[in-house]
Amino acid sequence: MKKLLLSILMFACVSGMAQTLSIRLTEPASGTITSGQAVTYTYYVKNVSSNTLPTGTAFGIGFGSANSQGQYTPFSTNVLSKSLSANLASGDSVMLTQSFTLTLPAGTNQQSIICMAVYTVSGTQATFQAASCRVYTLFNSLTEIEKAAQSLNVYPNPASDLINFAIDYNKATTVKMMDITGRVIETVNFNLNNAQVDVRNYNAGIYMYQVIDNEGNIVKAGKVTVNN
User: Fold this and answer.
1) Above 60 in pLDDT, residue 75?
2) Which of 1, 19, 53, 176 has its CA 20 to 30 A from that of 136?
3) CA angle, 133 as apex, 46 and 4 as ends, to 5°?
4) CATH at residue 216
5) Which residues contact 209 (CB under 8 A, 6 or more apart)?
């Protein structure tokens, strides 16, 4: 799947004269990030100076890339201007949550060094101070089928009467329901990107499904539980 693998522990400084803030990302702790897709990040900003930082202290966060010589190029459109909403004593941390869309620059190689940095911010200008970097495999987009798979909503699960399949993909044609041996027990057609499977006559247990498109591709496969 065309994605940016992400498993980061980041550290950086926000003052041109002395280190004052560090950043530690906690969520997502691991997994995959796709260029152009919003992700919610949870991170801690810690005061690593010997003084209390006052309310309104400005800083920024952002991603960038670095070459093997350590030369850093920020993704300038991805810098988020932030400021402390309360005084932050020396050694204390504050947890922040931010929805962030990382857009990779054109021509990014599949293997690259990616950094998350802290910036000093003045007006609309953000100046990079320091970053920690790791090597990631980069991809820029999802395929059509991958996007469709992400849009699939199967509910309720568990179910006792009807299971709904909703997908943002006009090419989806059928849902195949299978028992745990893989035997197809029912095929239901999509109508306007929606399908409904009546499981009232199913025995209680776990069943598998496949969403199939008009070219015979398996868009997504999964499991549902029937409680009867």
Assistant:
1) yes
2) 19
3) 105
4) 2.60.40.1930
5) 154, 165, 175, 176, 177, 178, 197, 221, 222, 223, 224
